[in-house]
Write a structure and sequence with these properties.
This protein is of the alpha+beta class and about 120 residues long. About 30% of the residues lie in helices and about 20% in strands. It starts with 14 loop residues before the first strand and ends in a 12-residue tail after the last helix.
Length: about 120
């Protein structure tokens, strides 16, 4: 959060009294001096939500901790890899990300050329 501006007349820190969205990218912030009651309105760029949680929300996936692989999932992965099913299809069938499937397949010695695509 940004620091409140100081009142030029009093030297006292102003307090935010309103924040009004103008467009998707800008907002007007109104700050009032508690001593002399003057109001200053500033146009600010709205802060974009960042981080893993926001990225996950925009992509429609949860930002939760990855789940461990069950023995059943590992055996399904081995079976599908033996049938040369593309990694994207394996990921979809197992309900996991493509990168997760590749990371699990690597130590099992299942990485082959057809899984790269």
């Amino acid at each position: 959060m940004t620091a409140s501006p100081l009142c030029v007349a009093c030297g006292v820190e102003r307090h935010a009294i309103a924040i009004e969205p103008v467009t998707a990218r800008y907002e007007i912030r109104s700050d009032e001096c508690p001593k002399c009651k003057t109001v200053v309105r500033l146009v600010n760029a709205r802060r974009a939500a960042t981080g893993k949680r926001k990225l996950a929300e925009t992509r429609g996936i949860g930002a939760s901790k990855p789940t461990d692989w069950s023995e059943k999932e590992i055996s399904q992965l081995i079976e599908m890899a033996g049938q040369k099913i593309p990694v994207r299809e394996i990921a979809k069938l197992l309900g996991r990300h493509v990168g997760s499937v590749r990371r699990k397949a690597w130590p099992l010695g299942l990485i082959v050329d057809w899984m790269v695509h």
